[in-house]
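Sample intake sheet
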Amino acid sequence: MGQKTNTTFISYLCLLNSLIDQADDVKELQSVGVVHNNLGTHEQVAEFFNTVSANLESNLHAYKDVRVRIRKHQKSHYNSRVKMWMTECLHTYFDTPWAIIAWLIAFLALFLTALQTYFQVFPNSNST
């Protein structure tokens, strides 16, 4: 234990701080088992990391392999703008079953409105 351990721990805090900016980041990291939240809310954890590691200087070579793997994952995951927009759309607008049901009902209403408009403009000539 000593200077190397302190530097490694500080570097680890800085790595986590680079991953955590908002409560959503904590939620995602917790869902995959990277962070275990015993502090309180996700907001409190995000604030903790942003406050504690604000003025720390880490060893730039520590956890370099982890940072490289994260960047590769980000590039492969966000390589396509369409894929990124679709993922963002799914997380924003279709996050609950009620949201999906509401979108389906709205689409059905628009479809039926368009169908009614079509039959008003082009009436069936066989009807009396």
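Comment: DSSP finds six helices and no strands in the chain. The radius of gyration is 25 Å.
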